[in-house]
Each structure stands twice: as structure tokens, then as C-alpha cells.
């Protein structure tokens, strides 16, 4: 039976992972650094049936880091599976790991049941032949195994920002897909509701690809009048139609050496879809009014917020073009399915736009979390961004509280999911500081007090009367909730 090699400098992590291997019934070795890992691998080998079949690899290691070791391992013809583990559960680490050939990526703290399953699936015994589709770089979505690119150097020179915020399991899956496809030239179709970050994902694929130094060109099919679409995409020669006063290159030409992002592809009129299909198949374009085809050297990423498969069934979108585009489909989850990301995004937006719009540091108050979690965000990340920006514009202090969100979000009780929604969101979401009970009461009490104060124009005595409480109690509650007198 093949062995698992656990590489982590933290003995307690090695211990826990060791027990997990035992539970899975798979023998294991341990190493505390990349150096030690190389020694263990040399001694045990990776080719023999009792050699190392799976490496559980931490990124942060003393000396050479895990990503360096991963690069070395992926380059070996007898590469074992490598599952990368990291506490820096960000977009960059997931993308980097998959790009360098990891079989999977896990953020800490681990879901041990999942680790156990991975160990069972990937550390395969001699009597079960290895499943080729699970080899490094292959994806669950049926992608062909990916050869390591010759120019791995290329990547390291580019410092990539963490453009996408979010650590929910659903987003980590997206990061993994970005890493997998970035090292290929495959056409990608991004599917997701409006405002889920499709354009950011397209940019991330580009920035992580070997075309990163080339242009990233966007065409929004919904924004171009149908009559101009052909010339916009493929360019035109002077005088080829009324208004064509100059020779103009099309977006395909402008994106040469880079990536062409075809946004809202579902909006493309059927009669123009045939030409796009031909261009993609023949990798050549003809300018409108031109007579010499130009070679196409672009990577296509298309996006849609419509149900393209249904559009195909209804005859509004060509089936052959759909298959051409959906070589690698990536689905972007709506914000309501991204557990924990709402608060993470909100904090980031508050701090970023606080500086930009107010020119000072602003933080998100704890009591603002419950109303944010209660909302279902039909407009996804874009809606959240707008709500934060609008609330910041009216903000006078340094903290954005639930009171500051009043008017920008449906009030608790009248929101699309109602008070029950707020409560459910609190129970499902991460435990807020101070506990769920306190957060729930604050989420109701703060807007109640601020509404009473609004009615009494800030008169605390009258507000206290309206609420049926003592003025001192009101003051105390306001202090506890972090509310300032108007
Ligand atoms: N994960 C994320 N982290 C940070 N910002 C994000 C994230 N996702 C989306 N955004 C921001 O939300 C806004 C909408 O994102 P984007 O334009 O990429 O969405 P989209 O899916 O392309 O929307 P549409 O279908 O309406 O064009 C942008 O301002 C983008 O910067």
C-alpha cells in the first residue's frame, strides 16, 4: 500500500493528520521541513507500490516553502499526489497551489472527515489501479490532466494581489478552478448571477496565466448596439459601411497575446453567433469589409448571468457555440450561499471605501453584522458594495453601525426574509463576538432606539417615554450598543 507523507513544521498538526491516516488505514511518514521531506521521499521512493503516493503539504515551512517543494514534485515524472494545506486561506494561495499542480487544496482548520476521504481516495493500494482522472491537475469537472507548463518561471515574477475576497468553501472551489485553468489556454465560461464577481474572476484567470503580460480586453454584449457588434468585435476597413470613416481594429485584434472577456454572451443575437463560432474554430477573423483574414491569438473567457443551457433549448443560443465556449464551465456562487463572506466583504469594503470616500479609517461595528447577515443580497457583491458606499457617505463617526444601515437595507421584520430570516442567518452564520443572543437583541434594539430618537428629534427623555423605559436605562443601552447621542 502506498504511504502518505505529512509535511508540516507543527508537531501537533502532524499528530492530528497522522491519526487521520490511521483511521483511513493508510501508513504514513512525517517531515518537518522541505529538506526532510526530500530525504523521506528519496528513501521511500514514489514509484514503488509501497512508496509515497500522497503528500499532505503545508505551505509555510522553515527554509524552502511548500510551494517550492510542490513545484519540484510536480516536475517529476513519478509525481505523487500533493494536497496543499494552508492557514492563509486566501485566493492567492489556492490559485498558486492549483497552478503548480496540486491535486487539492485545504484551508486550515481542516475538515478532518474530508482529509480522511482524500487520504482514502488518493493514497491508493497496489490492488486498486490509480484513477488517472484524479492525477494532479485534473479536476472534478472532467478536465483532461494538465501538463506542467515549461515557463513556470513566468509566474513567479508577477506579484498578484488578492483581488477576490472570500473564504467560504464555495469560493475556495472557484479559486481552485482559477488555478487549474490559468495554466491552460482553455476557453472558460463563467456562470453566475449579476454582481457575483465574474469579471474579477476573468481578470484573475488572465493575471495568473502565461498571457498575463498581454492585454485584457472586455466586450459587453449587452452594451453594444446590434448593428455595431460585428465591427466592434472584428474591426472594419475604411468605408466598409456608412460611418466607417477610418480603418478600425476589432476587440479580437486588440486582445492579441492576451485575453478577450466576452461579457453577457447570452445577449449576442443568434445571427451573429455563427460568425463567432467560425472565428473560434478557425482562429481567424475577417474585418468588416476586409479581404485578408487575420490570425487570432487570444484566450477567450465568456460570462453569462442567464441560463445559457435553457437559451440553447429555446433556440436562442446555438448549441455548437455553447459547447465551444463551455469547455471549462465555472459557476460563481451567489452571495447568499457564501457562508461567512458577507461580513468579510463588508469589513473590507468599509475599510477601503472609508479611506476613499471619507478619507479616514472606518470600521464595521459588531451590531451591524446581524442586519447584513439577515439580508439575502439578490444583487450579490455589487449590492453589498453599494450599500456600504451609500451608508458611508452619510456617516459622521468612525464606526459603521446597524443604525447607519437603516434605510439602506430592508428593516428587520420587513426584509425579504423577515425577522425569521435574521434569526436563521444568525444561527447559521459564524458566532459573533459576544454571542448570538446578544447580537440578535442588539440587531433589534439598536434600530428600535434609533427610530425612536429620530421621531423625537434626538430628545432622549421623550424617546425613553415612547419606548416605555427610564431615561437612564436608555442612556445605558445606547452606550452598550455603541450608539452616540444625536
Ligand atoms: N469576491 C469579491 N471580492 C471583492 N470584490 C468583489 C468580489 N466579487 C465581486 N466584487 C465586486 O463587486 C462588483 C461586481 O463584480 P463583477 O462586475 O465582477 O460582477 P459580475 O458577475 O461580472 O456582474 P454582472 O453580471 O452584473 O456584470 C465589482 O465592483 C467587483 O469589484
Number of domains: 3
Considering the protein shown, what is the CATH homologous superfamily of the largest domain? Response regulator
Sheet with most strands: 5 strands, parallel
Radius of gyration: 27 Å
Nearest-integer average pLDDT: 85
- The assigned CATH architecture of the largest domain is 3-Layer(aba) Sandwich
Helix content: 40-55%
Determine the structural class based on helices, strands and strand pairing. alpha/beta
Q: What do we call the CATH topology of the largest domain?
A: Rossmann fold
Strand order across the biggest sheet? 2-1-3-4-5
Q: Into which percentage range does the β-strand content fall?
A: 5-15%
What coarse outline follows from CA principal-axis ratios? flat
Give the CATH class of the largest domain. Alpha Beta
Number of strands: 16
Q: Can you describe what's shown?
A:
The chain is α/β, with parallel strands linked by helices and 486 residues long. It has 3 domains: 3-139 and 153-175, 3-Layer(aba) Sandwich (Rossmann fold); 184-333, P-loop containing nucleotide triphosphate hydrolases (Rossmann fold), CATH 3.40.50; 336-480, Helicase, Ruva Protein, domain 3 (Orthogonal Bundle). Helices cover 44% and strands 13% of the residues. The protein has 21 helices and 16 strands. A 5-stranded parallel β-sheet has the order 2-1-3-4-5, sandwiched between helices. The protein has a 5-stranded parallel β-sheet with strand order 7-10-13-6-14. The protein has a two-stranded antiparallel sheet with strand order 8-9. Helix 4 (91-99) packs parallel to helix 7 (169-182) and helix 14 (341-358) packs across helix 16 (380-394). The longest helix has 20 residues, at 436-455. The relative contact order is 0.07. Residues 129-160 have low confidence and may be disordered. Adenosine-5'-triphosphate is lined by residues 164-166, 192, 194-200, 263, 305, 345, 381-382, 385. It is found in: Cytoplasm. InterPro entries: AAA+_ATPase (IPR003593), AAA_lid_NorR (IPR058031), CheY-like_superfamily (IPR011006), Homeodomain-like_sf (IPR009057), HTH_Fis (IPR002197), P-loop_NTPase (IPR027417), Sig_transdc_resp-reg_receiver (IPR001789), Sigma_54_int (IPR002078). Its main location: cytoplasm. Residues 164-393 form the Sigma-54 factor interaction domain. The modification 4-aspartylphosphate is found at residue 58.
Amino acid at each position: 500500500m502506498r504511504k502518505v507523507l505529512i509535511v508540516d513544521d507543527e508537531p501537533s498538526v502532524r499528530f492530528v493528520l497522522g491519526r487521520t491516516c490511521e483511521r483511513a488505514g493508510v501508513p504514513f511518514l512525517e517531515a518537518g521541513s522541505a529538506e526532510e521531506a526530500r530525504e523521506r521521499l528519496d528513501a521511500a521512493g514514489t514509484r514503488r507500490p509501497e512508496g509515497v503516493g500522497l503528500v499532505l503539504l503545508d505551505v509555510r515551512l522553515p527554509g524552502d516553502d511548500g510551494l517550492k517543494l510542490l513545484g519540484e514534485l510536480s516536475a517529476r515524472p513519478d509525481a505523487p499526489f500533493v494536497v496543499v494545506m494552508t492557514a492563509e486561506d486566501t485566493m492567492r494561495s489556492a490559485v498558486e497551489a492549483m497552478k503548480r499542480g496540486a491535486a487539492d487544496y485545504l484551508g486550515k482548520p481542516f475538515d478532518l472527515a474530508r482529509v480522511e476521504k482524500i487520504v482514502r481516495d488518493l493514497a491508493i493500494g497496489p490492488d486498486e489501479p490509480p484513477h488517472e482522472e484524479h492525477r494532479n491537475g485534473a479536476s472534478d469537472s472532467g478536465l483532461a490532466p494538465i501538463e506542467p507548463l515549461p515557463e513556470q518561471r513566468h509566474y513567479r515574477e508577477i506579484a498578484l494581489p488578492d483581488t477576490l475576497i472570500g473564504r467560504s468553501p464555495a469560493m475556495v472551489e472557484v479559486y481552485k478552478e482559477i488555478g487549474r485553468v490559468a495554466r491552460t489556454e482553455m476557453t472558460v465560461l463563467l456562470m453566475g448571477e449579476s454582481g457575483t464577481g465574474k469579471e474579477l474572476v476573468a481578470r484573475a484567470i488572465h493575471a495568473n496565466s502565461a498571457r498575463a503580460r498581454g492585454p485584457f480586453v472586455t466586450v459587453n454584449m449587452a452594451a453594444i448596439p446590434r448593428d455595431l457588434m460585428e465591427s466592434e468585435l472584428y474591426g472594419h476597413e475604411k468605408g466598409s459601411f456608412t460611418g466607417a470613416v477610418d480603418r478600425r481594429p476589432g476587440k479580437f485584434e486588440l486582445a492579441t497575446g492576451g485575453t478577450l472577456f466576452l461579457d453577457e454572451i447570452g445577449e449576442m443575437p443568434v445571427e451573429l453567433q455563427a460568425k463567432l463560432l467560425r472565428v473560434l474554430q478557425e482562429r481567424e477573423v475577417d474585418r468588416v469589409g476586409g479581404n485578408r483574414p487575420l490570425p487570432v491569438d487570444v484566450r477567450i473567457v465568456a460570462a453569462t448571468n442567464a441560463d445559457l443551457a435553457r437559451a440553447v433549448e429555446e433556440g436562442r443560443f446555438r448549441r455548437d457555440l455553447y459547447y465551444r465556449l463551455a469547455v471549462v464551465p465555472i459557476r460563481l456562487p451567489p452571495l447568499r450561499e457564501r457562508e461567512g463572506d458577507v461580513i468579510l466583504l463588508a469589513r473590507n469594503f468599509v475599510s477601503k471605501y472609508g479611506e476613499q470616500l471619507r478619507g479616514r479609517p472606518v470600521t464595521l461595528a459588531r451590531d451591524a453584522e446581524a442586519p447584513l447577515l439577515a439580508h439575502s443580497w439578490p444583487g450579490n457583491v455589487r449590492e453589498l458594495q453599494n450599500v456600504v458606499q451609500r451608508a458611508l457617505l452619510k456617516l459622521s463617526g468612525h464606526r459603521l453601525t446597524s443604525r447607519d444601515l437603516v434605510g439602506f437595507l430592508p428593516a428587520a421584520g420587513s426584509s425579504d426574509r423577515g425577522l425569521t430570516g435574521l434569526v436563521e442567518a444568525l444561527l447559521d452564520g459564524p458566532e459573533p463576538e459576544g454571542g448570538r443572543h446578544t447580537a440578535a437583541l442588539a440587531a433589534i434594539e439598536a434600530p428600535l432606539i434609533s427610530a425612536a430618537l429620530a421621531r423625537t428629534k434626538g430628545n432622549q427623555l421623550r424617546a425613553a417615554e415612547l419606548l416605555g423605559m427610564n431615561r437612564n436605562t436608555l442612556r445605558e443601552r445606547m452606550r452598550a450598543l455603541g450608539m452616540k447621542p444625536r
